[in-house]
Amino acid sequence: MSRPGTWAVLDDGCRWEREKAPRGVLASLSRYSLLPADGSRGAVKVTAVATAHSSTLGADEQLSTTLEEVLRCPEQRPRAGARITGLNSLGTPFGAREQEYADDSVLEAGQYVDKDGAAQPYRWMVARLGTVVVAVSVTGAMGHTEQELQQLGADALGQMLVRVQQRLKGK
Questions:
Q1: Exposed e or buried b per residue across 138-167, where buried means at least 16 C-beta atoms within 10 angstroms of its C-beta
Q2: 125, β-bridge pairs
Q3: Pairing mode, if any, of strands 119-129 and 132-139?
Q4: What values do phi and psi take at 108, rounded to 5?
Q5: What is the pLDDT of residues 4-16, one digit of tens each?
Q6: pTM of the model
Q7: Is 4 exposed, middle or buried (0-12, 13-18, 19+ CB in 10 A)?
Q8: 13 Cβ partners below 8 Å, 6+ apart?
């Protein structure tokens, strides 16, 4: 779990670090988990993030920044000895390309390269509902197809969006 009062920031050297959350960010929480290895299939790393902003504009700015960071840093360093390479991103507002689950969304895709040089598919899925931004990253492992990873991330993001929608409606 992330430290309270912080959020993840991509620095000038394209390294991810945690910094004090800026004004307008009410709360941000990251959770890290593993889908365990099973026989010939390796463990899949999953990160889930939820950030509550004080305004829709602030939440929109987070998505814009997410979309633009890939242009600035097509290779990123999430931690020592690891790289995310070949990143591409696609933004899809509500109503475009049959996207009807969030006010706005961003998908990033690339390869996660560990310290040993092994590369696995990587997905970062981000969506905004009102003032809340939720995201799921999925880092593949041997024996998992890109379709399985995409579905795992989409399912997790969908569950998070349902919970946000319920909370925003007071249910």
A1: bbbbeebeeebbbebbbebbbebbeebeee
A2: 107, 136
A3: antiparallel
A4: -115, 140
A5: 888 889 999 999 9
A6: 0.90
A7: exposed
A8: 77
